[in-house]
């Protein structure tokens, strides 16, 4: 799965339907993201109205990328960093901590499923550890009601990691 790519003509047509105030808001938000200007604008115009569908598309895309994960540890670590850059770009577009947590939990689940569980390659192991720590701190910053929604999923990921990865101890990462 890849997100739809819109040309400048499609973006220009969509901008003609917006008011001046809406265009100003879009441009101000666009100014913060220099590299992905066109992608961000396309997201804001065509995808932002339904974040849950967009998040599911990103999950599907990262799931497909995990199915292509190389066997050798060095290449796998590079590929996992590529997936994380993609997730970072999309979470920047969505600008929601809840979406970031959902995507990172999905990443961790896919890592546990697809990555070599017997590897001794420390950089490959640290990728998972850093993402789990990132999720833990992000959940801690949420409102209590939202925390409750994610704590169960987080604990399931920890349980799964402890079962499948002999080097992982969930006691170090409990909330």
Q: What is the overall pLDDT average?
A: 90
Task: Indicate the radius of gyration in whole angstroms.
Answer: 18 Å
Tell me, what's the shape? Answer: globular
Strand/helix succession: HHHHHHHH
Low-confidence stretches: none
Number of helices: 8
End-to-end Cα distance, whole Å, is 34 Å
Total domain modules = 2
Strand residues, percent: under 5%
Report on the biggest sheet: none
Q: Percent of residues in helical segments?
A: over 70%
What is the number of E strands? 0
SSE blueprint:
Blueprint: H1 8-16, H2 20-31, H3 37-47, H4 51-67, H5 73-94, H6 97-114, H7 122-140, H8 144-164
Helix pairs in contact: 1-3, 2-3, 4-5, 4-6, 5-6, 6-7, 6-8, 7-8
Explained architecture:
The protein has two domains: 1-49, no CATH class; 50-172. Helices cover 74% and strands 0% of the residues. It contains eight helices and no strands. The protein is mainly alpha-helical and 175 residues long. It has helices spanning 8-16, 20-31, 37-47, 51-67, 73-94, 97-114, 122-140, 144-164. The radius of gyration is 18 Å and the shape is globular.
State the gist of this model.
With 175 residues, this protein is mainly α. It has helices at residues 8-16, 20-31, 37-47, 51-67, 73-94, 97-114, 122-140, 144-164.
Structural key phrases:
175 residues; mainly alpha; 8 helices
